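Title: Prediction job returns without error message
Component: structure pipeline
Severity: low
Priority: P3
Assignee: unassigned

Description:
Job completed but the reporter wants confirmation the result is attached to the right record. Sequence as submitted:
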Amino acid sequence: MPPVNHLDLDLLKTFLAIADAGSLTRAASEVGRTQSAVSMQVRRIEEIAEGPVLLRTPRGVELTARGQRLLAHARRLVKAHDEALVDVTGRGLTGAIRIGCPEDYCTAFLPALLRAIALQHPRVSLNVACAPTPTLRRMLDDRRIDLALVSLAADHRDAGGDAVIRREPLVWVAANDFAPAADEPLQVALSDPQTLDHRAARRALDGARRPYRVAYESASKDGLLAIVRAGIAIAVLTRGAVPADLCVRGAGDDLPALPAVGIAIVSTGDDGDSLLVAGVKALMMDTLARLPGAD
């Protein structure tokens, strides 16, 4: 009788870890095995698949055409297994998930979102990375995170799964004693030039023909707040992220109005989210939509 070949869940989960990490070493860490054990699993997968599923490159590993076909099946089978286990045991989701968040939203929204996850899915462990939206997008593309809160233009139209869940106004923020000289350009402190708040601030000032100088730039919210607290420049934040010791400035200070930004929760999801990612994403979206204060 010929040997029975089947792809068991351990093999499929290891294969998914390799596909997502792009590296046998990182995948071994994800699944809690040695690299040699993972290599043995790959050989077993390739025996069953009757051909190579991975291509070794100087930068890691890539999927072959056969591996790409297997990937879609593997995601579907593992997700179906996890759904069945959750349904039968009633224990909720388990596993580890990596969440990205801009620093503004770490203050305004992230505590409530993490609390909701902990209450509904106490067996899920969380890892949080704070970075500007453009950086989070790259981290999603590289599969270094699973989910991210990101900023979108407030009038963004959902064309690729990035639906705006809520809108937050951008505001000018300054120290209470900040007093710009009337005969000098406004000293402005802005975040990463690729971010929406940076571009919105410059567009508004240019449109109002308000002389200004980008005197300080910082990708860190703490860096911007230090500059603002020093009383030497004005910055832009989302309204919910303004600390109590700073004040919002507006038209009375000869400053142009700023737009709102949209907030979405996005995942890698190009070939289907896992049950864990899909479940946590849905919970985060529902929680974010219910939080008070949105426009």
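Comment from assignee: result matches the submitted record. DSSP finds ten helices and eleven strands in the chain.
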